[in-house]
Write a structure and sequence with these properties.
Blueprint: E1 9-15, E2 19-23, E3 26-30, E4 34-39, E5 44-46, E6 55-61, H1 62-67, H2 72-79, E7 84-87, H3 94-105, H4 109-133, H5 145-157, H6 164-170, H7 175-186, H8 190-208, H9 213-220, H10 225-236, H11 240-247
Antiparallel strand pairs: 1-4, 1-6, 2-3, 2-5, 4-7
Length: 252
């Protein structure tokens, strides 16, 4: 994860070392040996050096996640941008279970079905444990404070008219220098980060509100409907209305 990015899945990960993340403009530290889970539609990336460290990931497509009828509290926590943390031991030891699933998902129909059922059971256990744990998380310290401040401000104000000068002001930097350090730290421009935040906000509103689709685009920060539809299709693979029809009912 060299750059801030997003994808429409539930993401689990665990490592034997602390992982410093920036998720939707907020810094998080995932302690060693803890299983983290969040909705990866929000822009996210590692902000600490993980070279040479073993990290285990599991991504569950959103339609699967929503179709499993998981506890409502957990679903809402994920769609609201929460990060859940649980002990990665026993039946939640992702690093021990993932290699077998990976092999079976590349096998025949029966092997894929077996792996899928086990992943559903794993997710259900994680959902129960996350609810009991409260989704606690600790702030990370590896990212530059000025970049963290700018990313957080972009995320919080993505629905507004955002200018580079406004972003740079949060870190008390010259706009040109602010753009340089932001891209160096997160691997993408401020404009792309803003677009990712707006798409994530639009997805959340499509799944959890009854706002008409054009109003969703406006509420997410897009001032042009044509731009909203083009950006959404480009990043989500389908128009906003189709996305809502496919996933909205299961999200409520």
């Amino acid at each position: 994860m060299a750059i801030a990015h997003r994808h429409d899945d539930l993401e689990f990960n665990v490592a034997e070392v602390d992982l410093d993340y920036l998720i939707d403009g907020r810094p998080f530290r995932i302690p060693a040996g803890r299983l983290a889970v969040f909705w990866a539609a929000r822009p996210h990336q590692f902000v600490s050096d993980t070279s040479g460290e073993a990290i285990t990931w599991l991504t569950v497509p959103l339609d699967r996640f929503l179709g499993w009828g998981l506890p409502r509290r957990f679903v809402e926590h994920m769609l609201e941008g929460g990060v859940g943390l649980v002990d990665a031991r026993g039946l939640l030891a992702l690093d021990a279970r993932a290699p077998g699933w990976h092999a079976e998902l590349g096998g025949d129909d029966d092997e894929r079905r077996t792996a899928t059922l086990e992943i559903e059971a794993f997710t259900r256990r994680a959902a129960r444990a996350t609810s009991a744990d409260g989704g606690a998380s600790a702030a990370a310290s590896a990212i530059r404070p000025d970049v963290a401040a700018m990313a957080a401000w972009i995320s919080e104000h993505a629905h507004e008219d955002v200018r580079v000068d406004d972003i740079a002001r949060q870190a008390h930097l010259h706009p040109q220098y602010a753009m340089t350090v932001f891209r160096a730290a997160l691997g993408i421009t401020m404009g792309e980060y803003l677009a990712q935040c707006r798409i994530g906000r639009a997805q959340h509103l499509l799944l959890t509100s009854d706002l008409p689709v054009p109003a969703v685009g406006f509420a997410a920060g897009f001032r042009s409907q044509s731009q909203f539809y083009a950006r959404f299709r480009e990043r989500c693979g389908e128009p906003p209305a189709a996305y809502r029809r496919r996933l909205g009912a299961a999200a409520r």
